[in-house]
Amino acid sequence: MNFNFPTEETIAAVASAVAAGQGGIAIIRISGVRAKEAAKNIVHTPGRAQWKSHSILYGHVIDQITKKHIDEVLVLIMDGPKSFTGEDVVEIHCHGGLINVQRILEELLRQTFVRRAFPGEFSQRAVLNGRLNLTQAEAINDLIKARSQKAAELAMAGVDGAIYAQINQLKERLLDQLCEIEARIDFEEDLPALDKSEVLTNITSINKELKALIKQNKQASYIRNGLKVALIGLPNVGKSSLLNLLSKKEKAIVTQVPGTTRDLLENEIILEGIPITLVDSAGIRDTDNIVESIGVQRSERMLVTADIIMFIFDISKPWNESNQNLLSKIPQHIPVLLIGNKSDLNIKDQPVKTDVIISALNGNGEKSLIKSLLKTCGANKAQNIEISLNERQIDLVISASNALNRVLTQETQLLPWDFWTIDLREAIQTLGELTGDEISEALLDRIFSRFCIGK
Q: Contact at 8 Å (CB) between 158 and 220?
């Protein structure tokens, strides 16, 4: 870091998820030089309790106006620098819910020297005070948001420092090449000539590793963000039945009447560690029913927002012009799985190549469908990924790789070493921005503003 962060202000926020009737315990976190003072002012502890670091006290939060008990609490005390933020930290553990949690926070904020924490401010202070590096803090945020076990494992790898370690070693290797080149520029007469082919080999190798990170990131994003899979087809081909089969519960109403589904119906499932949002849609057809017509319009809009489309048709009937017209509406850049449903009936020969044949009624072909779905989007390759970069990080990896591409181009143009150093420095600085070693306070503010309040 190239700046110092002032820690005079004491901040407080609810640090746990809060919902009415859910969660037995809630946590309110206070951090700053007057954290203990803020907690002492509202918590009454019986006897002669000592507010020592890394101790737990029992007490009651008192309404400072009515002097009535608000809640029975435990108070955890952690003096800096041995705390999450590196500052003095106090956590008040109270009963979960909405009312008493907000009342306790209000009692804290009533004190003029305590303010509400900004989103991500606790983590930001942890980074600025050297308790975490930037990639670890971002990984903690990913861990909180993880939607599957695999996503949580990848986030935990970042918390353990795997992202920082891998990016930093690439940066150090580039620094070695830059130092070798600059030494020859400054002391050309005193040093042996630099082996250009060796420098090129090293830079190419580093760039290859950066490109591998970029390539695998699409699969990693499936684990982190999940996939949106749209079920598209004519009315009464079995879209809702297929949704119910994959969801393992009756999420959609199924009847023999065409047009039963009038709106988009979503359900999230996990397939081999990949969070998948299935979206059942209204059957797309011309209709005079105003409600069904609105559903059809929404289904058509969904065609351009899905990550992958399951096009479902009735394989017991001949392929018709309506099927073909609907298939032609799907944007060419979106992967499509062509699924012939109702294999429990008589299967008709089709003029199109069917990817999967299934019976949503009895489940035959379900395993093949899941395998084809994961293969079509490439998510089946995600299981071997060891680290996952977020959007900010992958953008910086792309920028660093582009800088190295320019270095390699300069070699073919026979440009002098001085030109190489410009883009090498840019690549090094970009990787330093990724790890947090080279970053401005304004940019740091922007990064942590995307975190949740209390983190």
A: no
